[in-house]
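Run folding on both entries below.
>entry_1
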Amino acid sequence: MNSPQVVSKDEWKAAREELLVKEKELTRARDALAAERRRMPWLAVEKEYEFEGPDGKMSLLDLFEGRRQLVVYRFYYGPEVTSYAGDGSYPERACVGCSFVADQVAHPAHLNARDTSLAFVSRAPEAEIQGLKERMGWELIRWYEITDDFDADFDVDEWHGTNAFIREDDRIFRTYWIDGRGDEQMGNTWNYLDMTALGRQEEWEDSPEGYPRTPPYQWWNYHDQYGG
């Protein structure tokens, strides 16, 4: 291993401050990109989609659970899966990359507090999905079986990907989509919100006129203290 040089405390701090300038540039660029997402046109969802859940049939609208926004991750789990690590295979194991994502999903209460729901969907039968959730400790993730063309229609039929939707009453619109290495960032509450049409909904954000906004910290809470 070719290690970097060892320096004094002052030299280390100077090097870190130099890098911090670039890190702040990256943060500002990320915020600007999220602001552009909030100005993306919406695509109306004209078809009806049906999923199988632990309590039976559910529509795409049902997946919102009454909230304004919905983020849907297509988890690669089913007979078609080929991406395993180590021993094990379907149905005991799912795609190792998607499983890595699931391990990092934050408590859903924080997303819910921003009027946003999170759902996973897969081709595997619902009974197998529930079994995998239990084995892997993913009980808090809401996860449903795809029963129609949802994955093909939203560009996640061949792999994994994350779609964002918003609703106006019973009308649903697709607002954004991330796949590939973009999914590496998913799991964190902030990154989910940054890909949605309404964003973090905080006052400092560059959002269109009339978008919901509240001060930071004033809506944040411990996950067991949110009302509703």
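>entry_2
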Amino acid sequence: MRIIYRSDISPDIDSVIDVYNSSGISRPTWDRERIEKMYVNSNLVLTAWDDGKLVGVARSLTDYCYCCYLSDLAIRKEYQKSGLGRKLIELTKEEIGEETALILLSAPGAMEYYPKVRFEKIENGFLIRRKR
């Protein structure tokens, strides 16, 4: 397995949907148009490729100077626990710089993962949930 990481392209939406479905991440993959809007409106997308096949994605929104919201971290099931997620987080941190806080909302099933990759659990957040 020779993984190539890229920050200079936005992946094909069907490939993203395939990664989401494989990874177990909960996203509206039945709504291709919505997934496409998610990527069109994101300003930092890092991808992992194995022989031309998309195997991982980290999608963020950032101002590159104060905060970055890591909205999606998805790795194909068969590539999980191989360090791809950790590497995509590391590359995200490199892109945003040390002055920028990296923030995320964890899926319930990933709550134990993020402390392992040096995220600090915080208690001072608030949320207005989406309707759909």
